[in-house]
């Protein structure tokens, strides 16, 4: 059951599987993300109506379906205009790009074309071409900051001292439970966490955790987890391994048993993110042998 919770005079959020920001701009509402699907969209509209608010704007932090899957319904049911940045906007416009990317650019297997990996299509009205910009609405100003790493062009939204963090940071509980959290660019994710640790907003709201006033400690826990996984992968590659072998051994190390084809592709992409980061920093090397790619740590 989603509930409207207040953070500041004009800033609220709906708590749910994905937290959704609600900014009161006079009689209108600005949403930060929209949720997974039509059923979430209907709940949002009912709550806005109960609070005499008209939906005017949706700002998506990134393209993942649990953040923009309700756009489609909301866009049809209201006059809401959608804002998104860079590549995120491209995938919100063309959701097929997500399963396509998980399947190496080939037409994806049908199992990957589900509502969790392929949101319903919506049309971005305002393509943001840069970050560190301010958007001025009737009674409030919103700042867009880069929080890349989990997703290529993820943004954070700052409003009235509150930072909506998207999936740039996870709770300690989630880290302890899952360890292998989803990132596509390890270097950018590390830079994002280092940046967050130095910020001083009044309040932070991650999409899948409770609001917090202190981000420094949580950023460190997130960063330590990434560094640990990177170290494990580097160690596993002391003997040369294919991507598939490394995936299997990393999952075994963390005692993860994959339960679906979707999870397999997410985990494989995550491993690829660690590999490209290590490779681009000249910490591992790549050899094409017998028509197979092998990764190996560089000593010294
Ligand atoms: Zn996400």
Automatic annotation (TrEMBL):
<protein>
    <submittedName>
        <fullName>Glyoxylase, beta-lactamase superfamily II</fullName>
    </submittedName>
</protein>
<dbReference type="Pfam" id="PF00753">
    <property type="entry name" value="Lactamase_B"/>
</dbReference>
<dbReference type="InterPro" id="IPR050855">
    <property type="entry name" value="NDM-1-like"/>
</dbReference>
<dbReference type="InterPro" id="IPR001279">
    <property type="entry name" value="Metallo-B-lactamas"/>
</dbReference>
<dbReference type="InterPro" id="IPR036866">
    <property type="entry name" value="RibonucZ/Hydroxyglut_hydro"/>
</dbReference>
<feature type="domain" description="Metallo-beta-lactamase">
    <location>
        <begin position="17"/>
        <end position="208"/>
    </location>
</feature>
